[in-house]
């Protein structure tokens, strides 16, 4: 089911460049790109409780959030709609009432890169490295930038680890087996190689 939907989205994205005719929401427009990044970062720096390790959003990578409207909507409205799920979320436990919270936790996960697309009035926000796992908090609670005191801009960290762990339990593997273990070193390069950078949840 999900793979089929992803395949359809990818096929649709191949025609996006010719389909994007609404300039003020067209993700190829650099002003629109800046709006999307700025709105995300505004919500990210304002999370409650505050985040010690929230990275500044930059770039355009891969993952997803979807939004449907019967008419064109500004990206600020779309991202605000995703962020509205905050009213159903309690850190670190998740949904307080069974309502969806996945869009909110994707907006506020430690690291989120972006790749944007629009087709008709479906707005696709694809994200990579989103780390949106059940029973796994989207960030570490603490004073803003406590985890990156020398790499902080406007209450957001600017020192992401360039490596990706293959498993979510890499921090535990590092503690129990150490990075001298060749499997841990191979599977957990972020945990083993990044001692001062923010290691995103993958």
TrEMBL record:
Print the keywords alphabetically: Disulfide bond, Membrane, Signal, Transmembrane, Transmembrane helix
Concerning Gene3D superfamilies, the annotation shows: CAP (3.40.33.10), Crisp domain (1.10.10.740)
Which Cys-Cys disulfides exist here? Answer: 170-188, 179-192
Task: Cite the PROSITE patterns for this sequence.
Answer: SHKT
Q: Which domain of life is it from?
A: Eukaryota
What transmembrane ranges does the database entry give? 109-126
Q: Where is the signal peptide?
A: 1-18
Pfam families named in the record: Crisp (PF08562)
Q: Which InterPro entries match?
A: CAP_dom (IPR014044), CAP_sf (IPR035940), Crisp-like_dom (IPR042076), Cysteine_rich_secretory (IPR013871), ShKT_dom (IPR003582)
Residues in domain ShKT?
Answer: 161-194
**Protein name (record):** ShKT domain-containing protein
């Amino acid at each position: 089911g999900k793979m089929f939907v992803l395949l359809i989205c990818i096929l649709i994205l191949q025609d996006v460049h010719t389909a994007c005719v609404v300039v003020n929401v067209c993700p190829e427009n650099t002003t629109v790109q800046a709006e999307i990044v700025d709105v995300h970062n505004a919500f990210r720096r304002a999370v409650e409780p505050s985040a010690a390790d929230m990275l500044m959003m930059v770039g355009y990578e891969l993952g997803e959030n979807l939004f449907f409207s019967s008419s064109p909507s500004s990206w600020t409205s779309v991202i605000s709609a995703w962020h509205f799920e905050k009213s159903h979320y309690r850190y670190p436990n998740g949904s307080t009432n069974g309502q969806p919270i996945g869009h909110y936790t994707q907006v506020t996960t430690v690291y989120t890169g972006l790749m944007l697309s629009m087709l008709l009035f479906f707005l696709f926000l694809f994200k990579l490295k989103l780390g949106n796992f059940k029973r796994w908090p989207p960030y570490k609670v603490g004073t803003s930038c406590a985890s990156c005191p020398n790499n902080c801009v406007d209450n957001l960290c600017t020192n992401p680890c360039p490596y990706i762990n293959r498993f979510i339990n890499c921090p535990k593997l590092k503690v129990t087996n150490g990075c001298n273990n060749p499997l841990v070193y191979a599977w957990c390069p972020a945990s083993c190689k990044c001692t001062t950078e923010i290691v995103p949840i993958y």
